Amino acid sequence: MNDDVRNIVLGVVAAGISAALGWVARTYLWKRKLRRKQAFFGLPDNSESLLVVNRGAAGPEFAVMRYDVFALLELAALIKDCNAHAQILPHDTARQGFGERTEFCVGGPASNRRMAAHLSSLLPGVRVNVDAEPSPDRGSFLIGSERYRVEGGREEYALLARLTAERSPHTRPVFLFCGQTSITNQATTRYLARNHERLSRKYGNNTFVLLLKVINSQAYGPDVVELVEDVTRAAQTPLPAQAPRNSHRAS
Question: What is the pTM assigned to this prediction?
């Protein structure tokens, strides 16, 4: 074997080793990223999860609002990426505890009994006005001493929460997507889909409750979302008996 042939063989071998090492490194990083995502969502390989959705106020018995369907599609993609499976349940048939399977609960308490139960038991510092009669406070959020009113199509609020019943690595989380309107439900699921890596780095696998604001949904749909603040502490602190002193209106 002359020097030219030997150099060619050595070059091919070196290129093969470099390619193999690169593939191993990429595979390792991809698997580590996947494991972090699975841990954040509580969705190990082949695990089961629940998608609990409200029913539309009109239409067939199992009708779901269009934007809530879009929200379910956002969540289904996340679940599939974790190599997990989902079962969709209407809110009034999900009669079971939580912690054994990851749950994604979509919709406000006025149309989702499951959401109402979660807010009452897990977030006693949150109250949502579900009055049927028109009023300035209809649909508003009361979080601690702050009230957040809805101005349909211009400024609407939503809560994104990751909750666990107890501090245990085996307890699956409950994710709440509680919007003042159906389009804010989709905006909240989209926010999670776009920002779950950042949220995972910041909160790990711990509980958090975020207040989001959807801007000008009549023009921008569910795409323009602002983080108002982390309201975890206020949401978990039972509300005082006195009336709230502060309120927020759309300008």
Answer: 0.82
Give the chain's residues under pLDDT 70: 1-16, 18-30, 55-63, 92-95, 166-170, 241-251
CA-derived radius of gyration, the chain: 23
* Contact yes or no for 48/87 (Cβ under 8 A): yes
- Range list of H helices, the chain: 3-41, 66-81, 113-122, 182-203, 217-220, 232-236
Asked if 39 and 46 count as a contact pair (C-beta separation under 8 A), the reply is: no
Centroid of chain to Cα 53: 13
Residue 187 has which token pair? 């905006």
| CA distances from residue 123 to 18, 97, 115, 177 in whole angstroms, order as listed | 53, 16, 10, 13
State how far the Cα of 149 lies from the Cα of 146, in Å rounded to an integer.
10
Find out whether 240 and 144 touch, Cβ atoms under 8 Å: no
CB atoms near residue 67 (< 10 Å)? 21
